[in-house]
Amino acid sequence: MPANYTDTSGDIFCSYYDSNTTCQEPTEGDILQVERICSANITAAYVLFSIALVFGLPGSILALITVLRLSLKPSTLYIGLLAVSDFLSLVGASLTYYTLYTYYTLIKNSDPLVEWEEFSKWFGRIFQAFSHWLLVLICLERFVTVTYPLHKVKVYTLHNTVYTCIAASALCCIPFLMFCLRYLKVVTYSKFRFISIVIYLTIYIIVPTLLIILFTALTALQLRRSQQRRRTVLTPVDMERSTKMEADLTRMMFLTAIFFVIFTLPMAIFHIINQANFYLIRRKLCPVEYAISKLIFYSTANLSFFNHAANFYLYLISARGFRKRFLLVFSKKKKFQEVVPASNYTEDE
Predict the structure, then answer these.
(1) Which domains can be identified in the chain, with CATH numbers?
(2) Distance between CA atoms of 113 and 312, rounded to whole angstroms?
(3) What value, to the nearest 5°, has the Cα angle with vertex 259 and ends 256 and 264?
């Protein structure tokens, strides 16, 4: 049995055998099991990503069209940019994903376009990370709105909102710039690998996830504390209108943040465990274990793409005002103009 082998199903390279480890030499049964795992891996990954693409692309477009009909505010600017970033994330990922899938399933005997695949993959990750950080900014904006409602107007001007978006986009470009340094051989990848992985995972998923959980929890806590105080300050009419607007935007943030954690936390946990094993524990995986780890890797990675596909549908579920505005945009009936006045759901607080 050779030291390195791939499955013979022609699907994907997903296992590895090192004769220098304590693993037993793979038997025919092990090879067949690896083949089945690899086949299930590529099929599940293809189906999951295709579902995310089919629902995500039109959802992002519909979300953007609906948001464009709202008055321009910091919250609506963030949501609109998130729709654009989600769309570009899915488009960029589809270029890389389907190129790899075509190579592994149809033209495996040909040389893959490594340069194009790597460039497209890392360039697309700019928008994926930007979507994550936009959600962080949305959660922060909701926290400031709930905690400091009187100071929010001064803090969150459109100019300041644009500056935060520019800063977030610059931060998200760092992993791509690091890829360019490796590609141009400015740095040695073997020595640069650990730092590159740590910085990429930190910017891409770990820090955004922690901040989203933090701001969401703080916002929920502050809402409970401020509920009684708002009742004593606002008149019944103003309270009803302000509460509806705030509740819509806050529910959108809560539901989006919850599903972000559901879709991305498994991938974050896998990467942390995998890198800890590679650099600290240094336990070599046997062929079947390696194939299973690849299955988990691709499954969690494709699950994370639903974070870019589900936002529009979460808005419809969580926010009654957004649903009405969506119906107003795509309905010619005048009755919706009476249900959703022009001033409704367009002011922040």
Answers:
(1) 28-228+237-339 (1.20.1070.10)
(2) 34
(3) 120
The residue count for the chain: 349
Phi first, then psi, for residue 132 (nearest 5°) are: -60, -45
Alpha helices in the chain (DSSP H): 28-68, 74-105, 114-147, 152-155, 158-172, 174-183, 189-201, 207-233, 236-276, 287-304, 306-309, 311-318, 320-330, 335-339
CA distance linking residue 306 with residue 100, whole number of Å? 20
Q: How far is CA 33 from CA 12, 26, 41, 288, in A?
A: 14, 10, 12, 7
Backbone Cα Rg of the chain = 24
Global pTM? 0.81
pLDDT tens digits, residue range 175-233? 888 888 877 766 666 667 778 888 889 999 999 999 999 999 999 888 877 765 555 44
How remote is the C-alpha of 99 from its chain's centroid? 21
| DSSP conformation letters of 253-303 | HHHHHHHHHHHHHHHHHHHHHHHHIIIII-PPPPHHHHHHHHHHHHHHHHH
